[in-house]
Specification:
The chain has about 325 residues and is mainly alpha-helical. It has two domains: about 210 residues, 3-Layer(aba) Sandwich (Rossmann fold), CATH 3.40.50.620; about 80 residues, Tyrosyl-Transfer RNA Synthetase, CATH 1.10.240.10. About 55% of the residues lie in helices and about 5% in strands. The strands form two sheets. The chain has a three-stranded parallel β-sheet. It has a two-stranded parallel ribbon with strand order 4-5. Strand 4, helix 7 and strand 5 form a beta-alpha-beta unit. The structure holds adenosine monophosphate and tryptophan. The site of tryptophan has 13 residues, from strand 1 and helix 6.
Length: about 325
Amino acid sequence: MKRVFSGVKPTGHLTLGNYLGAMRRWSAVDQHEADALFCIVDLHALTVDHDPGRVRRLSRQAATLLLAAGLDPKLCTVFAQSHVDEHARLSYLLECVATDGEMRRMIQYKEKAAVERARGGSVRLSLLTYPVLMAADILAYGTDEVPVGDDQAQHVELARDLAVRFNQRYGHTFVVPRATLPKVATRVMNLQEPTSKMGKSDDVGPGIVYLLDEPEVIRKKVMRAVTDSGRDVAYDREARPGVSNLLEILAACGSGNPEALAGVYESYGSLKKDTAEAVVELLRPVQQRHKELCADPAYVEGVLQEGAAKAREMARPRVDAAYRAIGLLPAM
Ligand code: AMP
Ligand code: TRP
């Protein structure tokens, strides 16, 4: 059975982008078809200015939302990255395989480092090495497929390169993984700034639909989405980013495709109305289950503890093998 691994960072409240780009497939497809692991990648949340209490709260909330979105601990493994030492252990070895030039070429690093510098802050070294830790997350488990949104494709590509390089230099140790992207909504855009990704830690709040937004809030955000200067409803991501984003969201909520849906609508208003309702209905069951799970925090805690125990067993032999292959003495 193929192995699937993916993760979500507890750096902000989860968004419609996280759900459509990643989480929904994890529960609808991956956990049924693969031996799948889904990870709250909390170590990654420390790469930018952070508040310890907030990271803890967001980590619990992310775990609860993954279960609310349908991940079933009987079918897959849900755990927190920091509970499994193998991630950090392997990350160091991969730092000895990656180059600093490779790290500096990562688009997300360049963007986030620029934001930090513009704020007058300093850039944490871990922001630069973050993609290596992500590669370790993936490679530790012999992962075949990594279901992610399109913003993570470059990082998965790096994981592939590191796997190939390590295997060539030190002998076959790692499976070479590949990213699997959704067909639609691979990059959900900010409703107020449709040329930027809907990111959970962005400043443009009114353009972000959070999974736990009340229906009224969702409707308001979608109805106020920035559209384009033309009047007809056309699907063209370059020339019509605002309308195209709404068409993609609507398509992803149902089973249509954005081009075909463009032909159905004559006005922006009716497109927005239907998109808002589709999102509200899509998130309704997730929000309902989230409420139920919040009443039972011990259950969520138990899932994470059991998940970590399973994950440790899966990762340990391969990471130990990598330590030996690279030239380190066996520990016993
Ligand atoms: P992150 O929020 O960066 O931890 O992302 C978790 C997962 O959600 C990753 O697979 C991302 O690629 C995906 N994702 C995040 N934001 C979006 C977005 N706006 N559109 C599509 N996928 C997204
Ligand atoms: N970097 C990813 C993001 O920001 C999260 C992540 C960390 C991840 N490790 C991973 C995703 C391993 C897939 C596989 O979205």
